[in-house]
Design goal:
- By secondary structure, the protein is an all-beta fold.
- It has one domain: Thrombin, subunit H (Beta Barrel), CATH 2.40.10.
- The chain is built from no helices and 12 strands.
- A hairpin with a 5-residue loop joins strand 11 and strand 12.
């Protein structure tokens, strides 16, 4: 089962270029379309919303400070995917 990724302390993720982030029970992130259809299955430790046809994602890393209200994801292995979840080089 998947749920909408939560942003801003309980707000479901917003649509960006027709897609929103989802999270599975293991905490992995993927993407669904505006109707809730899974288009990129959850597989990433963290993912940013789509921007100009690509999304920045990673399989590794951790929160910078999980107790801080404004955290960021830290990873040395970022890459970009397209709307189908394929790695792309930009």
């Amino acid at each position: 089962m998947c749920y909408a990724f939560v942003v801003d302390n309980l707000t479901p993720d917003y649509l960006s270029e027709g897609y929103f982030r989802i999270v599975n029970e293991e905490g992995l992130i993927g993407f669904a379309d505006s109707l809730g259809n899974i288009v990129v299955p959850p597989q990433f430790k963290f993912a940013y919303p789509f921007d100009k046809g690509k999304a920045k994602v990673t399989y590794t890393g951790s929160k910078s400070d999980p107790n801080d209200e404004h955290w960021e994801w830290v990873s040395d292995d970022w890459f970009y995917i397209d709307y189908q979840g394929r790695a792309v080089h930009w």
